Amino acid sequence: MWSPPPSPLQLRRPPPPQSPPPIPRRHRTRLIPIAATGGGASQDPLTAISRLLWGRALPPSNLVLAVRHGWTSAWGLLMRQLAPSDPTTGAFTRTPSRFPSVVGSPSQRLHLYVGLPCPWAHRALLARALLGLDRQIPLSVAVPGEDGAWCFTPESPDKLYGKGKLREVYASRSGGFEGRASVPLLWDAERREVVCNESIEIAKFFCGLAAGDGDGDGGDGGLDLWPPELREEIDQWYSFIYPSVNNGVYRCGFAQSQEAYNVAASELFSALDRLEDHLSGSRYLCGDKLTLADVCLFTTLIRFDLVYNSLFRCTRRKLVEYPSLHAYTRDIYQMPKVADTCDMDAIMDGYFGTLFPLNPGGIQPLVPASCDREALLEPHGREALSSASAADNGSRQLEATSASN
């Protein structure tokens, strides 16, 4: 029986080699940033690691909570050192001056140390300028260092001793020094001793020098900021503006509890409302005469919209929203020598650049338009306030203020 011939032998070729499976897209996208960091790309390593761990999503909640807790604890520690507070309420408590009053009779070789950002030092600097004591009392200007301590630079040196830090000046006194090296500092160069580092007392001492009290030669400013007949009234105004306004802005900015902030902010703006009402009929706090009370109020007001409104959370109203208070500030700013004591750039840098716990990024906002020199030189129109109505209104307002306290 016939059968078909056998078919030729079929050789089977081996299958071509299989290429490895492609890397899933989600892994490839996570590896790209890491590779980029080694290739000179602009992405920083921390960003690359975060992309590897959680992609483009928000960080895990546990990490957020841990960082928040750590930052809050560190912030509290820094604030307790920078701005001591009441442990029960969180309210800021200012450390008393180490040398609060002038004791004895200083020599005639006096030297004043100030810092331009500081409102307390500004009081002494402004009194020195208004009273014409520039030549009688030499001046050195300290600047905030990176650690917040007052120091000197080649551009702003210690003109008396050439020290690098203000603390070194304090420490050169015979008894040494421990504590905060603060400004203003009135120094007796002959005795190598602190005369005083309390701003209001330094200003009063300058008033005595300008009047020719003691061994001084007097000043050439032609002003009496501390006249005997107004001293009681000046003290009453000062006892009102210091806790609520001068220190009030710091009580807002350095409050370590919501309750402490609420109390401080309420007192601050209540005081500003009272001052606005009073100054609507009085050119200055004590009538038509500029006094130390005005000097002390001015150094806070000139900084209000510049730094306190935003950095210290004094946000209910800006100074420019108080017509009388803002015109009053411009009135004093336009007096001879006053503008020269107001360095807005130094103030901005001193607060936003130095107070790390309040502004950890160190970013400085734009200067408000109301704080530009041109705006501060706009006519204030306060010459029209009569002395008679000012005195009457001042007495009534002061009595009402004293009664409310």
Task: Give a nutshell description of this structure.
With 405 residues, the chain is mainly alpha-helical. The chain has helices at 25-37, 45-54, 61-82, 119-130, 166-171, 199-210, 231-246, 248-253, 258-279, 292-301, 304-311, 323-333, 344-352, 373-376, 387-404; strands at residues 110-115, 139-144, 150-151, 185-188, 193-196. Helix content is 44%, strand content 5%.
The low-confidence runs, each spanning 5 or more residues with pLDDT under 50, are 7-12, 26-41
Tell me how many strands there are. 5
> Total number of helical segments?
15
| Strand composition percent | 5-15%
List the secondary-structure elements in sequence, H or E. Answer: HHHEHEEHEEHHHHHHHHHH
What is the gyration radius calculated from CA atoms?
32 Å
The CATH topology name of the domain at 228-404 reads Glutathione S-transferase Yfyf (Class Pi), Chain A, domain 2
| CATH architecture identity of the domain at 228-404 | Up-down Bundle
Approximate shape: globular
How many strands, which pairing sense, and closed or not: the largest β-sheet?
5 strands, mixed
The level-1 CATH class of the domain at 228-404: Mainly Alpha
- Find the structural class using helix and strand composition: mainly alpha
Mean pLDDT level:
86
Q: What strand line-up does the widest sheet have?
A: 3-2-1-4-5
The rounded distance between the terminal residues' Cα atoms is 135 Å
The share of residues in helices is 40-55%
Organism: Leersia perrieri
GO molecular function: glutathione transferase activity
Domain GST C-terminal: 227-352
Biased composition (Polar residues): 386-405
